[in-house]
Amino acid sequence: MTTTLRIEHAISDYDTWKAAFDRDPGNRKQSGVRRYAIHRPVSDPLYVMIDLDFDTVSEAEAMVKRLQEIWQSAAAAPALAGHPQTRIIETVETTEL
Where does the chain show beta strands of DSSP type E? Predict the structure, then answer.
């Protein structure tokens, strides 16, 4: 079973946000992230949804704490707009048709 940390928030500029994301201040690999996906609503390019997949809930919870510290720094999160929402979710079923 996969544990996913879903993060959603508004941004002021995608390219600036993506450059900060790529700098990886949360050290995703060493924090247990197995894969990630970035989504944007078709109707709102200034909003992102990020799924970080982990093996355990405790790894996801630790990442939430780390990210909350990062989000306090304008230098580490330069394009963050508003307050990020986080949820830790588990995949209970996946089907390909």
Answer: 3-11, 35-39, 47-54, 80-90
Closest CA to 50 of 61, 62, 65, 39: 39
Q: Which fold has domain 3-90?
A: Alpha-Beta Plaits (3.30.70)
Domain map (residue ranges) of the chain: 3-90
DSSP-assigned letter for residue 37? E
**Cα–Cα distance for residue pair 85/81, rounded to 1 Å:** 12
- Residue whose pair of structure tokens reads 């700098």 in the numeric block: 23
Q: Average pLDDT over the chain, rounded to whole?
A: 95
> How many helices and strands, by DSSP H and E, does the chain display?
2, 4
Q: Write down the pTM of the prediction.
A: 0.93
17-40 per-position pLDDT tens digit: 999 999 999 999 999 999 999 999
